[in-house]
Design brief:
The protein has 280 residues and is of the alpha/beta class. The strands form two sheets. Strands 2-6-7-1-8 form a five-stranded parallel beta sheet, with helices on both faces. The radius of gyration is 22 Å and the shape is elongated.
Length: 280
Amino acid sequence: MSHAHFRLDWLREEKKLNPFFGGRPGVVRIDFVSDDAAEDKFNHFIKEKFQNKTGNGQWLSLRLDDAWSTTFPGYDQIVAIAKKLEEANFEIDWSQVQNGSGDTASRNQAGRDNIINIENSYFVNGVDGSPTGIKKLLLLVCEAMAKFVGSGGHFMLIINDMQRHNQGKFWEMIWNAGLRDAVGDQISLVYFVGPKCGREPHGDAPAPEVQFTLPHSIETDDARQDEVYDDIIEILKSHAGYSDDEASKTAGGLVASNCDSVLRLHMGLSKTIMFNNLKR
């Protein structure tokens, strides 16, 4: 796990998610009020916590985000799920959603997506991106996902905070269009609800089994401050070679100066470790 994604100030949240980290499928809703909650770092934390496992089948985790070109809502998200499954050797038969002759979409080179329109069809890098093509691709993905979980695999799908219309695309085009019925009760679905969606989930979002709000500040929470202080000491000792006294003093300073923002706490810890390693 990278220095930027240590568990810090999330002991209570981690305990709530431990059944899912252990392989139990289910739906989780995570709320946050601002970037001070360090939701991006928490996102990375749960992804790495889930997928870095051995034994009892393969563990895969995928984050979908409307801010990333590779997981734009709709078509790109289906492709991203397909590619993630292929990492576990559950192949997708792309020939079923490609141009039949192979001539039109295969003899082209481009640094980015190669988009071709022919006879009311829509091909992106040779794959049919029309509504019919998207449905076919989703069916293939659902079949591959069913095989994956049926063989003992574990999959966590993380839906990051999105604009409401982009949330709607995921629920309509992927979840409700087939993935829910195919494997909805066999995978873990985690969705974030924050400022981008007006702090309200889309009406199609499933009811969560576990729901909590990420803290954006520990300023008035003495118990959390103690948890953070202990976490920082252990991290500085194990990953930066600090002595007990050095770690205690540094942790106290970090907590005192950043207790109003969990994000700044993480950033301060990462900078401290980085500067210490540069001095070596």
